[in-house]
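Q: How do we represent a protein-ligand complex in a form that can be generated token by token?
A: Start from the inputs.
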Amino acid sequence: MRNSPFRSESCSICAVILLVQAFLVFASFHSVALAAQQPATNDARVGTAPQHSDGPWWKHAVIYEIYPRSFQDSNGDGVGDLNGITERLDYLQSLGIDAIWLAPIYPSPQVDFGYDISDYENIDPQYGTLADFDRLVAEAKKHNIRIIMDMVMNHTSDKHKWFLESESSKNNPKRDWYIWRDGKGVGPDGKPLPPNNWISDFGGSAWQYDPKTNQFYYHEFYKQQPDLNWRNPEVEKAMFDVVRFWLDRGVAGFRLDAVPALFEDPELRDEPYTGGTDAYGDRKVSDIYTNNLPEVHGVMRRLRALIDSYPGNRVLIGETYLPNVEELDKWYGGVKHNELQLPMDMQVGFINKLDVSAFRKHINEAENDINGNWPLFVFDNHDNQRSWDRYGDGIHNAAIARVIASVLLTSRATALMYYGQEIGMVTTPPKRKQDVRDPIGIRGWPKEKGRDGERTPMQWSDTKDAGFSTAAATWLPVATDYPTVNVETEQGEPDSLLHWYKQLIAMRRNDPTLRDGKQLTLDENNSSVLSYVRQGVGGNPAIVVALNFTPSEQTISLDPAIAGITDNTVKTLLTDAPSLEQTNSLRNIVLPPFASWIGSIQ
Ligand code: NOJ
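Then emit the structure tokens for the protein with 1-deoxynojirimycin bound:
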């Protein structure tokens, strides 16, 4: 019952009250579930989620990231695979998602678990075959789910044939496909000195020396991930051919890995030092010469034109860690809307503390400062500690997870989730260095333990290895809380986090106001409660959301005048606080600690 809203968080509640509350919550959830079963309207596409009249599918989508190694193992080798994902499509459909983003499944030496691609037009045998992939796309379509590929354009594996050719000699026609440079001579220790002070994101110099040709190549990530030279037009042509290969196979779009890193300063200027050292012991440097260079936008515009030449609203999602909303807006193409449809907004999801004003500020910016473009919110992915741990206080984690889910799914934004987020999977980092699988965790131990903790196998049931695999050993161990935190158990608990996610997703799918209504801040000086109104759409009522970000009870009175509403009469649509079930006015709402309340204005 870790995900129960009533667990030790409200320690004085007696068992009888618990039962009554559970019934009330169930009754409330139940009414929303019925709404979710209404027939889809205006579904113009075959085998895809309901197409409402309010824009392309991705605008209202819930996109679910799957880390294929860890989702479902279908052949008992301890590693997840494509057929495993296909087996779980019924579950994903019942959750209500619209699309799967698959972390890389291409052939790869797996140094960076697939982000080092050695062949862009095939499937790594440990995940399956192209036929398995085609079957996944076809079966997913029957479940109204689209498939989005991860596209790694910044670098290849050092085992990719392009790089093997490139490194073979200075005169090879592919030499210039990567970034090769002379070093700065030899240091006092007799070792060749790199061309400049650039540091790899994964530790050490970003330059790797090649004794055969006496030059260095640049790698933003591991040395087994040489960066492509996007100033060479042949690189763009080759990569766009790859994009076509997958579009022709029916994928719905791409998540563009590390895409702000495509270009580097051609003069190779040293990065300024910013003070201190990182987890790997390197002096910290800025990234003004290696990240988010303006040249990248030309590539994005051409890529957008390419995907727009295909039917069916294919989508480009960006892995866009950027300093602010002004920079983010450029990734959409600003007023021209001609670059990515959905560069990820990392400002909201990675605040990493329950700071109401920071949430309000960043949500408002996403609503108002991106020139009418459409935000994509995300709290969890395979590179960061799970939001359960980043936002949880160790006592109220379940309620806090519901608050986070509410922000994600009641905001006017496309929602991106990560497998296991919906059941409250925790980050489980390795305890000993010898157990670490992610190379950055080996290099950075113990300061940087790597990303294994957020990549542990999906927890399906309370059986061996959580139903993930029948192998004697899984590639990463299953987290020890799986006997209680798993899909099967939570499916049977009306007050589980899984049930909460399902209700929110169903509401959002069926309510034009939640899909499209303008989002306006309420009670904007309140530093304990985040509240906002979604303006009614198509004659449907406005919706108000109030989320208590604190461990104490909070009383609020909300005035929705900003949305042109004078009436205060409301009806509860969804709450995890039984005491709020009967709320019928926006005056004096008493929110228990970390409570979520969503209501419609009558
Ligand atoms: C971002 C990916 O999400 C991460 O997992 C990977 O290690 C780097 N890019 C390099 O591809």
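The pocket of 1-deoxynojirimycin is lined by residues 112, 115, 152, 221, 257-258, 319, 382-383 (CB under 6 Å). The chain has a mean pLDDT of 92.
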